[in-house]
Every structure is written in structure tokens, then in C-alpha cells.
Amino acid sequence: MRKSLLLLVVLLFVGSFASAQVANNTQLVGTVTDPSGGVVSGAKITATNTGTQVQYEGTTNAEGYYTIPFVAPGTYDITVEQAGFAKTVSKGAIVILNQSARTDITLKVGDVASVVQVTADTPALSTDDALIGDTVERAKVENLPINTRRVMDLATTASNVIIGPKTSFTGVPPGANYIGAGTREVANSLTLDGITIMNSLISSSPVTPNPDAISAVQVQSGNYTAQYGAYMGIHINSDTKSGTNSIHGTVYDYIQNDYFNAKPWLAAKGLRTPFMRFNQFGGVVSGPVVIPFLYNGRDKTFFMGSYEGLRQYQQISSVTTVPTLKMRTGDFS
Question: In CATH, which of 3.30.1370.60, 2.170.130.10, 2.40.50.840, 3.40.30.10 is domain 132-240?
């Protein structure tokens, strides 16, 4: 019974990992040529994610072209093998969410046992699709200041996106919405890992993912693929992080407290600073799925868990005007 339960947990992790890869258009593409510039067909392509060691495979066609769809964003080592040529490894290819990352490789004649390494230092150019948009990558998500930690607000770093005036987390319906590329809020799409997180009334979303669990926020303004065809405006997608072979985690608590606040300048003399307790706290942990003596998920199965809580207690001071004693008797002179 215990083994069956543990196996079920493993299957759930595997299923969630697999489904997360389908909700994007991220792919590796390229052309393999020989030293003379001729195309190489039938070459074996293996792309290895350096963080998880998960491998994706493909083969070049008659034109020497390869495409490996539905890969997870990250950094990849691309290995090319073909009889009569030395094995070539292109290291450090950076793949960005929902983009086609091109890595062209030229093989050298030689023994298959020999290895030629090529290192990439910058993200591959996306020249194989016409997508118009902006991507806020992991380093910016982790380091840019975000008021209230609403990670989708990073979409407003794009020049054509603003927070919609109807945004309200206490309204009906509650949630945030955005205006971009000259379109109204109702024309836009908001997704998390490619899955809609909007209500059905005004294209607003009450979902506020933990920024520490997000790897990228992408704004698509035009020429997007058919999967986004239901909406004619912009598309904002947040992409969650994946676990790797190493354990990673963060813990945080953002605090506001009346002990740190100054007294309002209109407050009466002798009145204490208004009571304030604000804590926005949480954490993220990720890594490989390992069940001792039963399952080792390194290089195969990974997890990522996130939690965020908010506790707020606040006293508000206000200044008002009341009628004088004469006014109360009808004397307004």
C-alpha cells in the first residue's frame, strides 16, 4: 500500500512536469553543415539542459535543418553526431521563453571519437519567427523592485503596456488588468505557463504568483502564434521555474511596522504613531524528486513548491471638520 501511494506521487510529479512543457512554443532550431558549406542530413542532435540534464533529441532533414519543439527555457549544450565527422558540442546556448533559438553548427571531418567544443556567450538570435514582444528574464524578475510583489506588473516595463485603471483587488470582479498596444483591457490575454488565469468578465486576473517562483514574464504584442488567437490585444504570460538537480530555495518576509514609521504631521500632540503590522512572507523550494530506497529522480523528475502569505493589521488616522457650538444653534456668522 505504501509503495503504491509513493508511486502515485511520482506519477503526479512526472505528469505535471510533462504538461508544463506543452504550454509554450519554445524550440531549438538550426542548420548543420560540413566545412565546405554543404548541408549534413541525418545527423543526430541532442540538446541537454545544463540545469536538469534532461535531454531532447532530433535529426537533421534533407536540407540539414533540425527543430526540437517544446523545450523548457534555459541553457543548453547541443551535441551533433554524424559518421565521418568529429562529434561537435555547442555549449551554453541560451533559450528564451516562446522563442525559436537558432544554433547553426559546422562539423569538422574527423573521427567520431574526437570532440570539438564551441561555446556561446550570448542568447541565440530568434530569426525563425515574427513574434513582436518583450521578455523580462530571470535576472530582472529576481532583481527589479516590484511594488506589492505583483509579478505581472513587470509587463509594464515594455514601452506599450500600462496597468489598467480598472485594476482593483477589492472590486467586482477583483484582479489586475492591463492596457497595451492601443487595445482595451477586454482584448488582452493573461496566462500562467500558457494557461489562462483570467476571469470571464473583463480580462482581469486575481492571481498573483510569487515572484520568487517565476522565471520570466513575457509580453507578446503582435504576430503571435495561433494558440493565442482568441484575443486580439497583447498577451502576458508568466512562466514558473522548474526544479533542477540541486536543491534551491528562498525565504523572505517584507515588513511594515509602526515602530519604523514616523508620526503623521497632522496627528495631535501626544498621540502615538498609528498601529501598523504588515507582513508579506513566503518561500520557494525546488530540486529533484528523491524518495529514499524507492525512486531517484535526478536527471528525470523535479519539483518546485511556492507559498506566499499576507497578514495586515492597520490603524488609520484621519483629520475631519466638525460644526462649532454656534453652528449647532444655527449661527453661521
Answer: 2.170.130.10
